[in-house]
Write a structure and sequence with these properties.
Layout (H helix, E strand, L loop, with lengths): L15 H7 L9 E7 L6 E3 L7 E3 L1 H13 L4 E6 L17 H12 L4 E6 L13 E2 L2 E2 L1 H18 L3 E4 L6 H11 L6 E8 L6 H7 L18 H14 L3 E5 L5 H10 L4 E5 L1 H12 L5 H15 L3 E4 L2 H10 L2
Parallel strand pairs: 1-3, 1-4, 1-12, 4-5, 5-8, 8-9, 9-10, 10-11, 11-12
Antiparallel strand pairs: 2-3, 6-7
Helix pairs in contact: 2-3, 3-4, 4-5, 7-8, 8-10
This protein binds ligand PBG.
Ligand PBG binds next to helix 6.
């Protein structure tokens, strides 16, 4: 093996041109999905204090936001809904007139080539804040499945291209697939939040979506952050049940999970660069301690380098602008 002084890896680092030629990982706005929080109303843009730069939007504002994203080359949005009322089963989640459904309809009418994905879960809609129905103080897995299926079918009816179940109930991908197929929505894809950990990184999201559990926590259904082998079992099961793409969430503290999933599975893999990861960057940048642009692009590059095909990220709009300007 040749070595120093004949081998000098610095040679190809000397100029921007050679660095570009040998760059192994490229970041493009086409790899981003922008999460949007929607609520009923008109002309609403309510800033979310825990997520600087992100707002709760009424459906018309969601269309405006998506138009801007589309113009920057971001192909997709993921919708989260804030309900007008909460109840024990989260029934507004499958109301065809609710905010997510209205926003999905308007987005597909106005921007047909935008990919509209929807988060399928009950926690924003239940009074107790859990991702399923409660029986004897616990989230009842099997009683929750038909409700999730109804949510997915309602989203599909509104025009969603992709439904993304984030509840972590066992068997939900199969239940949703069967319900979609029975409802003439065989064309709607499932992006499963397969390896989703019970993470403190969701803190700012729960403020944004008002979805903190009112008792207990989510450790009875979301994964233990310590388990990588179990994450592979979750992914394998979801693919077997019919998931079209799978997700690892959060991203930053789970790059090894993304990497191993990439090596084991040929299905598309998404990573969710979650609210806490974004909020930490914004907070430190706000203090002037870090360079937000370089940090955000480095983080997104790392997630893609680990093996993610695409990234759900609150940085989507800014990152798309930075990439266009030539970072
Ligand atoms: C559940 C859901 C959550 C997130 C996405 N879907 C919150 C949770 O599981 O508590 C978190 C996303 C983020 O932190 O950015 N509907």
């Amino acid at each position: 093996m040749s070595r120093f002084p004949s081998t000098r890896l610095r040679r190809l680092r000397r100029t921007a041109a050679s660095r570009a030629l040998v760059r192994e990982t490229r970041l493009s706005p086409e790899q981003f999905i922008a999460p949007l929080f929607v609520r009923k109303g008109q002309g609403l843009r309510e800033p979310i204090s825990s997520l600087p730069g992100v707002s709760r939007l009424s459906p018309d504002e969601a269309v405006a936001e998506a138009q801007e994203l589309r113009g920057l080359g971001v192909p997709a949005v993921l919708l989260f809904g804030l309900p007008e009322r909460k109840d024990d089963t989260g029934s507004e989640a499958w109301d065809d007139g609710a905010a997510v459904q209205e926003a999905a309809r308007r987005l597909k009418q106005t921007i047909p080539d935008l990919l509209v994905a929807t988060d399928v879960c009950l926690d924003e809609y239940t009074a107790h804040g859990h991702c399923g129905v409660i029986r004897d103080g616990e989230v009842d897995n099997d009683a929750t499945l038909p409700l999730l299926a109804r949510v997915a079918v309602s989203h599909a009816r509104a025009g969603a291209d992709v439904v993304a179940p984030s509840d972590m109930m066992d068997g939900r991908v199969a239940a949703i697939r069967a319900a979609l197929d029975a409802a003439a929505s065989a064309h709607v894809a499932i992006l499963s939040y397969s390896a989703k950990s019970a993470s403190a990184f969701y803190g700012p999201f729960r403020e944004a979506a008002d979805s903190s559990p009112k008792f207990g926590d989510r450790r009875g259904y979301q994964m233990d952050p310590a388990n990588r082998r179990e994450a592979m079992r979750e992914i394998a099961l979801d693919l077997d049940e019919g998931a079209d793409a799978v997700m690892v969430k959060p991203a930053l503290a789970y790059l090894d999970v993304i990497r191993e999933a990439r090596q084991r599975f040929d299905a598309p893999i998404a990573a969710y660069n979650v609210s806490g990861e974004y909020a930490m960057v914004k907070a430190a940048a706000g203090q002037g301690w870090i360079d937000e642009r370089r940090i955000a692009l480095e983080i997104l590059t790392g997630i893609v380098r680990a093996g993610a095909d695409f990234v759900l990220t609150y940085h989507a709009k800014d990152a798309a602008k930075w990439l266009r300007e030539g970072a």
